[in-house]
Design brief:
The chain is mainly alpha-helical. Strands 1-2 form a two-stranded antiparallel sheet.
């Protein structure tokens, strides 16, 4: 989210919460927690072992699905 849109969202949230009776400290705490959760969002992948006869690596590449040959065992599987 770009900084202008984020500032606009924070202003809108502050206005709405203030109208609902929240204190400035409580609103600031909520916004800080929201920003902390946003920043802690890390990208993680779930990997599955698939035998190469069930799906072609070209199919995964075409659909931009990350994959690699499985390093454990033989080279007939990829993850």
């Amino acid at each position: 989210m770009d900084p202008d849109a984020e500032a606009h969202l924070n202003d809108a949230v502050t206005t709405e919460f203030a109208a609902a009776g929240y204190t400035d400290d409580h609103i600031r705490t909520i916004l800080d927690k929201q920003n902390q959760l946003k920043n802690n969002d890390t990208e993680s992948h779930t990997w599955s072992r698939v035998h190469r006869r069930h799906v072609l690596p070209e199919t995964l590449t075409t659909y931009q699905i990350p994959w690699r040959w499985d390093e454990v065992g033989d080279s007939t599987h990829f993850a």
